[in-house]
Every structure is written in C-alpha cells, then in structure tokens.
Amino acid sequence: MSDSFSSTGSSEPSHASVCVLGSYAEALVMTVERIPKPGETLMGHSYRQEYGGKGSDMAVQAARLGADVSYVGVVGNDSFGQRFRDLMETEGVDTSALRVTDEHATGVGLILKDEQARNVIAVDMGANELFDATDIDAAGGVIAQSDVVLAQLEIPLTTALYGMKVARRAGKITVLNPAPAVDLTQMDLSDVDFITPNETEARVCVGLAPDSEVSDADIARRLQERGAKNVVITLGERGSECFLSNGDVMRLPAFCINEVDSNGAGDSFNAAFCVGLAEGHSVDYALRFASATSSLCCTQWETVPSYHDRSAVEDFLASATLQA
User: Fold this and answer.
1) 197, CA 20 to 30 Å: which among 37, 139, 239, 265?
2) Contact 275/18 with Cβ under 8 angstroms?
C-alpha cells in the first residue's frame, strides 16, 4: 500500500471493514460522598457494572457507524468474559478470533466516583496481558479481510506493534492509538500509517513530560522520525490536527456542543476515524467525521451508552457548527 494519504478526496461512503486488536475490562463502579482515606470505610451507593476497555469501546462505536467489525483479543472464561461476548454479539461484532482462557480472569477496573466528579481507579488488565503474537497469527484471516486495523496499548506493546506489522504486510491501513501512553522513542513505528495520541500522550510517546511545551509540530516530527507515517493529535475542546507524511498539516476546530461527559471520547474518535478511512474517504473528511462522532459521545454519560449510530452522526454533521 502507499505510504501517503491524500488530504482531500471523496466523501461518498462505501463498504468498510475494521479489525480491532483490543482490550476488555469490566468496570465496577460505585459512587461515594467523598474519596475515602487510607484504612477508611465509607458507605457508597449506585453500584453498577459497566463495559470497559478501549478495544471494546472502539469495536462498539465502529459497529454502530455501520462498519463490519472484527475483534481480536483475550478474555477470561468467566461471567465478565461472557458479558463481553454477549455485548459483541448484540453489536454485531465478529469474535471468531477472540481467545477465551482459564489462565487469567477477564480484566477488571474498580472505580470510586465522588459527588464532586473526582474518582480513583485501580485496574487489573487480567487476560488482556496474555494477548500475544500467536493470537495475531491465528487472526491472520480476519486481518486479511479488513480494510483498517486499529490497536491501542491496553494490550502489550509488542503485540500491538506486531499486529501493525502483520496488517501492513497484508496491505491494510494501520492505526495505533498509543493509550495509555508509553515511551516509544526506542520503538520502530514504520508499520504504523496513523498514530493518534492526544496532546499529553503525544509528549509521553517521545519521552517528554506530559505538560512539556514542545510544539505539536515538533512532537509529530519526532514520531515520524521513529517511522510513523502520519500523526493525528487530538486536542479536546480545541479540536485536532494532522501532520501528513507529505508535509501537509490539517487543523480542525472542535464542534460546538453542550458537553456532559468526555469519558470514552478518544475511543469514539479513533473508531470513527478508522471507519472513515476504511470507507475510502479523504483524511480531511475522516477527521471531520471522527470529530462529529466523538462530540456526540460527549453529550451523554459513560462510554458504550453514549455512542451514537451513523444516522445520528450524519444528522449532526449536517447541522453542527465549528468553534471559532
């Protein structure tokens, strides 16, 4: 496949297939009046179980946008793993390349949220840590049938990068969302067509402090020196910017919305961006489509319940305005 992507092109949709190299972690959430101190016990309320994991979020959002989605990953042979499989079946996601294991439990996150919107979180990635190159090789047929392969870093870094390599050898567009962020300064990113950090993650990826004042253009250059072809940096309420391998730079302001909860917006953005690319759209259109999708996500609470379908996104695109 070509190493360069056009910033302009058709915005007419076509069939799309996205493969997610993913993670799942059941979120166990409770609300408390305040965050307890060490050794303290507080009575909480509103306990709920929620779907978690960046890979799971991305698969759901891509499927709701109309793409054929396949999921590659590992879950435990337990009730949380079954809940995930039920979710994927409901959303129409192909899990033929999902491995179910007795070796580790399904990943889980314990979350305490206080009444001032603060939280403390502890995560055990569980079975996600077992996701390795053999799972990628076993999923070769699924990858070969996809247009775009999307990975993130709630799975082992070596597995994510190996997945990018296998996908690119098969002629697929590869997208790496480096979250949670890790230092990538010693990594070969030459199999990554698009790397998509937010602005703090981008700095961690090149070995800087999250609040470093180094410019985004310099960050993008450093990531491209490691081999990444194109760099998309999301900027929250300031939109996004894209640094293409041909030297073009695109900056897209955010849409005007009444934000309620930004949780899961990054996963929503990445899923939609991949759907746009898989449909053969220009990078410019794929970014606009991704921004609209993630903006809608921010108008409702939580992750999976906040993910909108294709018709809602298209309606929003037809009427929404960009921030000045």
Assistant:
1) 139
2) yes
Closest CA to 289 of 274, 301, 302, 305: 274
The residues that are catalytic are 267
Domain boundaries, the chain: 17-23+53-76+128-319
pLDDT in tens, the chain (324 residues): 445 555 555 445 568 999 999 999 999 999 999 999 999 999 999 999 999 999 999 999 999 999 999 999 999 999 999 999 999 999 999 999 999 999 999 999 998 988 887 888 888 999 999 999 999 999 999 999 999 999 999 999 999 999 999 999 999 999 999 999 999 999 999 999 999 999 999 999 999 999 999 999 999 999 999 999 999 999 988 889 999 999 999 998 887 777 766 677 889 999 999 999 999 999 999 999 999 998 888 777 777 888 988 988 898 888 877 776
Q: In CATH, which superfamily holds the domain spanning 17-23+53-76+128-319?
A: Ribokinase (3.40.1190.20)
Q: DSSP for 216-279?
A: HHHHHHHHHHTT-SEEEEE-GGG-EEEE-TTS-EEEEPPBP---S--TTHHHHHHHHHHHHHHT
User: CA dihedral defined by 280, 282, 285, 290, rounded to 10 degrees?
Assistant: 60
| Bridge partners (DSSP) listed for residue 241 | 233, 251
Q: What are phi and psi of 214, to 5 degrees?
A: -60, 140
* Global pTM value: 0.91
- Other CB atoms within a 10 A radius of the CB of residue 260 amount to 13
